[in-house]
Amino acid sequence: MSITALHLLWKQTERYEKALVILLIALAHLIFWPYNGMGGDMIEIIPGLKMLSHPGLYPRDFYQQFMSHIPWHERSFYLYFLHFTGAQYPWLLWFYYVICLLFMIAGLYRISEKLIPDPAFAFLNVIAVLFCARYFSVGANELFYSSPTSAIFAKTAGIWAIYFFLHQKTHYTGVLCSIAVCFHILAGAQLSILLMASGVVYSILNQENRQLRKWLMLPIPFIAIQAWAIVYYRMNPHTHASALADLIEFRIGHHFFIEYAGWLNIAIYILIFCIALWWWYKHEVRLLYFTVFQIAILLVYILMSTWMRNEIALQSQWLKSSIWVEFLGLTALSSAVSTQIRFPEGKYYHIGLVTIVIGGLCIASLFTEKEDPAILADEQKLASWALTHTRNDALFVYPPSFTRFKSISERSSWIDYKAIAHQTSYLIPWYDRVQRICGISLDDRRSGANLMQLADERFDKINDHNLTYLLFDQKVDYIILPTLEGPSEYMFPACTAGRYTIYQRKELN
Fold this sequence. Notes:
This protein is mainly alpha-helical and 509 residues long. The chain folds into two domains: 70-339, no CATH class; 373-508, no CATH class. The chain is 67% helix and 5% strand. The chain has helices at residues 3-11, 13-32, 39-53, 62-68, 76-84, 90-115, 119-131, 150-166, 170-183, 185-205, 209-217, 220-234, 241-256, 263-283, 285-307, 311-316, 322-338, 347-365, 373-389, 405-409, 424-438, 442-446, 451-460, 464-473, and strands at residues 395-397, 412-413, 478-482, 491-497, 500-505. A five-stranded mixed beta sheet has the order 2-1-3-5-4. Helix 2 (13-32) packs parallel to helix 7 (119-131) and helix 8 (150-166) runs parallel beside helix 10.
């Protein structure tokens, strides 16, 4: 290698250091983040993606058949994007996620680097946003997900939109906001509204008329088209107005109603909000406007959702917008602290510090709640058996916590607790089915019970009346239950894996 090349490499050391830290954070997240299963989004996305490639799959599935009759819904763009880019192969979907993850972390760091004077605090701010912010969210929302949901693609675009917003690159900001809207209408539209409102106010106060016209034009068509299509197919004038609010509260009330956040989370959020107001008032007035608009609309949302139970307000799910103020509030805190505390200079000190912090997070992850590996192994074994030993149109009922079974087995389910559509015409029969086999209700939600745990416990003790209803009235072919000493006379064990057994309706034998 020439002397000139060595000199150039030495000059770029700081950038290599940053790349190394970003890679370390990404690896730590991928390897040590508490594994929480596929969750609601992936149990809806993966079977839907498989159906696009093989339309004959899931012919009797309650969720997939309902969604297949809706021409356009909130996950349509993401499903078609994955389908036409070949992501029906799991390794390719995972590759997309890793690339998206690296871009998100890089965007978080670039924003932190711009707003925080000390690079060590910029590193620590990224780590705090990734690993700590989720524990004091007021809407149980996260900026960062450990699975390839549509939201993580939208939020990655949103993070870079904020970056270009801070650099007054209006066209880039608008394009990225539009991309975010396509991937996830709520996450993208909320951020677009906040950035547009902040940009408009800033342009008016600074008499920047050309910038004002740009802010008023860019993401609006994307928001309008997506919102119109989704709202059109959600309209149901024959349902009582309070039904949707009650059903949403039952299933995902923690995402829609601030009272489920807890007083400690609310207090921390208010503190972060106040820090953001104080710091950005002195250092970045556009982020001050951003923060003020977010909280102003949030207060209106809380009034209309909690006290008025207004369906239109609920559909906006404005609590989700709190993730941006949490990020910018933590950034303001890191920036303020870094002006008072200076780390020693030197790249080895910074790398060592960040490595120690990541190591601590890895150790802490060992003490976080994780899924039972034995039950997970049972689910995967039973799903693999179903894929190879049952007909394509077989209909299954399985425990609510089995979030991978449908994706692996490629078989229809009578009901999925985590797979929901926000249409009232779906949620009412969905609620009836969940209540029948799991024995949980809105009263359990309001009592503060852990619904998933309670649903699993009650499903395991399903009574004979409900079993015969499923087997004969609903023509369910297979039911997965804890292995029974004396199963019902109407079914027999077809496959056992550890704790659970697939029971088959006898007349199919």
